[in-house]
Design brief:
Elements (H helix, E strand, L loop, with lengths): L2 E4 L7 E2 L1 H7 L7 E4 L5 H23 L6 H18 L1 E6 L3 E6 L3 E5 L3 E6 L2 H6 L13 E5 L6 E2 L4 H9 L2 H5 L1
Antiparallel strand pairs: 1-2, 1-3, 3-4, 4-5, 5-6, 7-8, 8-9
Helix pairs in contact: 2-3
Length: 174
């Protein structure tokens, strides 16, 4: 796992989160980027979504004649494809915004609208309406905003993200 940090003096500086600890006592990086991983909870959810399609395929071929069996298998398996395609590819924090990028979307949250950033329990993270941006519920963070949608993200290093998002963006510009 590598977290990319860009300071105002060197835009191509790459460090790991552990080496960033010492340099962050006085200042935080201007840009932090993270590639989330798919955790155990998400794999269990994907398998659970595949079970109805598997049941139709097995029962339909061995015990009962199900009309249009292939269509039912495809329809029941389609949520798995949707979940896989909607998983986030990266989270990026800059001085101005938190950017969540997936395969077919880019969601931006201005830092001035973020009220809090708190960890969530895995079950609550899966059931939260904003969990579409969460690929690993064991590292889930809820981003509460002044108004509107509260997304749930799952960076590989949630402590670093919480510390940066809890800081006032105006302080970092100075």
């Amino acid at each position: 796992m590598e977290v990319e940090a860009q300071s105002s003096s060197d835009a191509s500086d790459k460090t790991t989160p552990h080496s960033m600890e010492a340099t962050q006592e006085n200042r935080l990086p201007n840009i932090v980027s993270d590639t989330p991983r798919v955790g155990l909870y998400m794999w269990v959810l994907l398998v659970a979504l595949l079970l109805p399609a598997l049941a139709v395929a097995l029962v339909g071929s061995n015990y009962v004649n199900i009309p249009h069996k292939t269509l039912w298998v495809l329809l029941l398996a389609s949520p798995v494809l949707f979940v896989i395609v909607s998983l986030p590819k990266s989270y990026t924090i800059s001085n101005d915004e938190l950017r969540i990028q997936g395969w077919y979307y880019r969601f931006r949250i201005h830092r001035s609208t973020i009220v809090s950033c708190e960890p969530m329990k895995p079950v609550k993270a899966i059931l939260h309406p904003g969990s579409i941006f969460c690929s690993d519920p064991s590292t889930a963070l809820k981003i509460s905003r002044k108004k509107g949608y509260s997304p749930v993200i799952s960076p590989r290093n949630p402590e670093l993200f919480m510390r940066i998002l809890r800081q006032d963006p105006e302080d970092e510009k100075e």
